[in-house]
């Protein structure tokens, strides 16, 4: 029987040389006359081991990594085809502790299947959720999603079911499902991984959302920085359409639903939902005031569900296995699982899907294994460029929407960026302001101008000019931005700035430059 | 690389692209992407054509072009090197690497080398944050960069 060798097509694997590994492997397979085929899967999320090569054996899949093109010949010499021993052999993939410790609901298939094989998808419980949705009344689908406790994984944490209910009850000649795949936060890559590794789950989630709310058209708005995700997602949509999963009759039912991918143009603010809608309409990505809510007047003023990739990709498993199954994971009001993205200066970086509730310390020290540099951890930024910097003193914070909010932070899209003790927190605070200045859409004055003034104030503190007065000014400015901006860009930029100043005051008291006496 | 296209060519190609895409809902951004793919930038001459065909004012079209970082008003170099400047890459020495790239190329961000070979741009996140620092050269991604890899990339782009 032909042996299947898996080499990921995920952008992280490609960025680390996967294409060269494939070339070398294909060459060796041909030269040695082996009965083997290469499958381009998504990533398992253990990025420090990428490119991770797997081989299917009678006892399960065996992993090797990180593999370089020059390792391929020696791997085959060592009997990779039958899972043979080699210094790069990691044993059975499923037994690798980083993977074994996870609860993979949304990412169950990611890295396992060929992302563009609908047969593979079906063979791993794909489309069961959609089939159940077709046999269910829209209101009952919405109730199921509400009961599951699923909240917006983009960061705001709004209950997905409530959003859907509003759109279901809204009247309009046309309704839309918009998937926010504008994953611009540094430290996040879950959306990219799903689109590259299991695109059908997002298609299925959006189709279910369409059936549940009466929407017939879906858009995935993603980033131009994600060319690989765009390619895989677009190809998957074509395949789904040809197979009747999308189109005038979804899986042969009376429901119509179709979708397409739209590419943004490098504006971070378009990850904000109303700005995204303006961009989809072909306008400048200016933020809209709410109300009206997008659920009432969204894309082209029609009722619109706008959800994050991970929210939508979590819906199929909820419909397949039931609301209770999903809700039983998690803590407090944070139900189900969350794909943590562990990044930055970390030993074991990657994607770790788990129930809510692990502490930040467990995530950073145990799962992440500490810093890549081997130096002590100084700060951890959770939730992207608008998230707070946490010091080790707050490592007991459980990963939960409310617990982070209670400590003046946010979990955002669950990106976790680790910094070692060489980080200068004043510099990080200045960067937060600078980033806001570059990316502000310009609608709100505190965001547009406050961010530029913030950079100047940070520079004055760094130069030792009236530091105490300028620290007060910076705090005051943050307060104005927080309460005077329409969206999270201006409103949340104060989180990294204030947390840096609060938790790392020593970095905000530089030794004043001694002026030469005249 | 300065491509000077005859005005008539720009108008004609723009008309063809707009004709192909104007049936989409919200066609402006897809049209601008397509025009940039075609010409390497969004030529000023194409703006009145787009405006007329989509029944928009020139100011509206110009406003959209200038809002988004991706759209260029001038051609880029033969190669575009984008370095990630966001937090995860900063935590792994991205700042130092950016300085090195500038020194190697003799230019700052948003500039093109005098021989027209390379344009250097910052990018805020390529989604490769678990293998920082990262970069993109002409659409190809590269991660876990160090000075050696960066020098090789720059040499490749210079060729």
Report on this model:
Chain B: Its cofactor is [2Fe-2S] cluster. Chain B: Belongs to the complex I 24 kDa subunit family. Chain B: GO terms for molecular function: 2 iron, 2 sulfur cluster binding; metal ion binding; oxidoreductase activity. Chain B: It comes from Rhizobium meliloti (strain 1021). Chain B: Its EC number is 1.2.1.2. The complex is a heterodimer of chains A (518) and B (159). In chain A, α6 runs parallel beside α10 (199-213) and α6 (128-134) packs across α13. In chain A, the strands form four sheets. A five-stranded mixed β-sheet of chain A has the order 2-1-3-4-5, with helices on one face. In chain A, 40% of the residues lie in helices and 15% in strands. The relative contact order of chain A is 0.10. The model of chain A has no long low-confidence stretch (mean pLDDT 97). In chain A, β14 and β15 (389-391) form a beta hairpin. By secondary structure, chain A is an alpha/beta fold. Chain A contains 22 helices and 16 strands. Chain B has 159 residues and is α+β, with helices and mostly antiparallel strands. Chain B folds into two domains: 7-67; 79-158, Glutaredoxin, CATH 3.40.30.10. Chain B contains seven helices and five strands, in the order ααααβααββββα. A five-stranded mixed β-sheet of chain B has the order 2-3-1-4-5. In chain B, α1 (7-21) runs parallel beside α3 (46-54) and α6 packs parallel to α7 (147-158). Chain B is elongated, with a radius of gyration of 18 Å. The mean pLDDT of chain B is 94. Chains A and B meet through α1, β12, β16 and α17 of A and α2, α4, α5 and β5 of B.
A few lines on this structure:
The complex is a heterodimer of chains A (518) and B (159). With 518 residues, chain A is α/β, with parallel strands linked by helices.
What is the share of helical residues of chain A? 40-55%
What is the CA–CA distance across the termini of chain A? 87 Å
Cα shape of chain B: elongated
CATH level 1 class label of the largest domain in chain B: Alpha Beta
User: What low-confidence regions of chain B span 5 or more consecutive residues with pLDDT below 50?
Assistant: none
| Biggest sheet record of chain B | 5 strands, mixed
Q: Output the CATH homologous superfamily of the largest domain in chain B.
A: Glutaredoxin
State the end-to-end distance of chain B. Answer: 14 Å
Strand content of chain A: 15-25%
Structural class of the helix and strand makeup of chain B? alpha+beta
Q: Mind describing the biggest β-sheet of chain A?
A: 5 strands, mixed
* Count of alpha and pi helical runs of chain A: 22
| Major beta sheet, strand line-up of chain A | 2-1-3-4-5
Q: Which blocks of ≥5 consecutive residues of chain A have pLDDT under 50? A: none
